[in-house]
Amino acid sequence: MNSKLTLISHEADICVVGGGIGGMFSAISAARNGAKVVLMQDRPVLGGNASSEIRMWISGAGTRVRDLQETGLLEELLLDNMYRNPKRNFSIWDSLLYEKVRFEPNIELLLNCSCCDAETAGSRIVSVTGFQLTTYQWHQVRAKIFIDCSGDSILAPLSGAEFRMGRESKAEFNEEFGLEEADGHTMGMSILLQARETDHPVSYTPPSWAYTFKTDEEMNFKPHDLYQINTNFYWIELGGMEDSIGDTEKVRDELLKIAFGVWDHMKNQGDHGAENWELEWVGFLPGKRESRRYVGDYVLNQNDVENHPVFPDTVAYGGWQIDNHLPGGFRMGGHAGSHLQKRRLSEPYGIPYRCLYSRNIDNLMFAGRNISTTHLGLSTSRVMGTVGVLGQAAGTAAAIAVRNGLTPREAGQQRIGEIQAQLMEDDCFLPGFRRQIPEVSKNAVLTCDYGDCSALHNGLDRRIWGNDNGYFGKTNNAITYTFREPTRLRQFRLVVDSDLNREYVEGNPDGLNTSSVLFYPRSYNGTTFGFPQCLLKSFRVEALDAAGQWQTVYETHENHQRLVRQAIDVTTTAIRLIPLSTYQSERKCTDYGSSTAHIFAFDVK
């Protein structure tokens, strides 16, 4: 460290290194659970592979299996994006990611700051130090727990934490897709393209240094149909045969030659229907799939993701297919997806807490593509929807550990029930577990003006495994809790249907809640993407006063979130929720398109 430059010191409960989706959610969840957090991010924007620098949309379990869309912080973010960014503008998306962290109380955000040193004492990390390129200053952060969400696991070489890199042999974990002999190869990295169809021919002249692919054979028969709106040319991929950290710059240079050459092939080498298409953007920062993976007290493997046992310390889940990109990447033939090794999963799999902390560094945790997995376990857990729930789990657990003066391992041994309960309270789904209903709600009499609302107490806040688990109520009809004696209430919690499968969202090209779009046919030019029509927009909560009159304690006509938790302070013998379709005054309030209130939970405590 150059002592001639200014050193700024920071003190925190938790330091998160890396500001991708996993790092963001680690920081936010820790902060919302009372911890003081510093987030150190080496880029000018947040989001990692989902940011405007790389532009990969967020995929997860719900992309492959109905009813498994991730909730918690991820659904909060995606609903904000649908509500405030109807044209899926990347600058607005970046600003939403920035806002979520920068204006969250208890988080100090250090952008453009690369972690490059760590001070250790025995088996603990004392501090980390990063260089901030924009200010030419050093930032040193001392913390009780460090969460590495850097993807490349920068704290492994800096702290001596155990890690793996490469592919395991079949003998080690008895994985079906394991190798006869282990090697150091990984999945590669990709750069993405963004293109738009115009109403006139657009010429394209490639740079002189780009590769030329005159035939599909020279393109190794990779799929390249512009009108498959989901495509992002993921197969412009290299690095699996090289060092996926040390060779990144060299690999990036090769990827750029391929990317501009691929567009030249689309435009100038045969008829690909691209005459009116123009290239808008090419990524210069590769999106990585795999590098260092930490070793925790448990290593998630292919057998776990396929057999989906219920781990007693489950804190997250995945459901994306086994999606193993073979190391050759672009250089491999693309016939019938032969450059990929895939297998769909029939059920979600739980991810144990033991995969989220270091086996040999006492105060080190991690969340993202660097958790404790085998190469094949990583091939499904690496996608950003799963990374998001891992981040929320890590941050929540770290905050509970700090609050109780415990190491991450001790927190798992002594407080796992509390960690799981908090995650489910925060609208995270844990397969095999049910959320506990608050005693105040359980001991009250629950009634509703219309239908049967008993499902509100079943502890499952989503449609899953053929069961709806919700209450279909009519607007302007109340759900009421009645107490035996006057009861002081501090909070209500409401979970409404946000259309996790995105079946009723107009204008979205792939039927899901993508944060972004990369290929714009003319049919989507100017498209404003929709919002879940079934989400409850207007509702009122009323409490019965001592005179027997209903008094409003909360009312909104602008809700756009699935989870609503609101602090209240009222002593009452009854409280009720009234979903609204019309505001009873001079102005009308409408919902997002449905006259039915589909509610998964309504609790008070």
CATH topology category name of the largest domain: FAD/NAD(P)-binding domain
Mean pLDDT: 93
CATH superfamily of the largest domain: FAD/NAD(P)-binding domain
Percent helix, as a range, is 10-25%
Count the domains: 3
Please report which band the strand proportion falls in: under 5%, 5-15%, 15-25%, 25-35%, 35-45% or over 45%. 25-35%
| Tally of helical segments | 13
Level-1 CATH class name of the largest domain: Alpha Beta
Counted beta strands: 28
CATH architect. name of the largest domain: 3-Layer(bba) Sandwich
CA(first)-CA(last) distance: 52 Å
For the sheet with most strands, the description reads: 7 strands, antiparallel
Indicate the multimeric state.
Answer: single chain
Shape: globular
What's the Cα radius of gyration?
Answer: 25 Å
Structural class call reads alpha+beta
Low-confidence stretches: 509-513, 583-590
Explain this structure to me?
The chain has 605 residues and is of the alpha+beta class. The protein has three domains: 257 residues, FAD/NAD(P)-binding domain (3-Layer(bba) Sandwich); 100 residues, no CATH class; 131 residues, Galactose-binding domain-like (Jelly Rolls). It has 13 helices and 28 strands. Strands 21, 22, 23, 25, 26, 27 and 28 form a seven-stranded antiparallel sheet that branches. Strands 4-3-2-8-20 form a five-stranded parallel sheet, covered by helices on one side. A hairpin with a 5-residue loop joins strand 25 and strand 26. Helix 10 packs across helix 11 and helix 10 packs across helix 12. It is globular, with a radius of gyration of 25 Å. About 2% of the residues have low confidence.
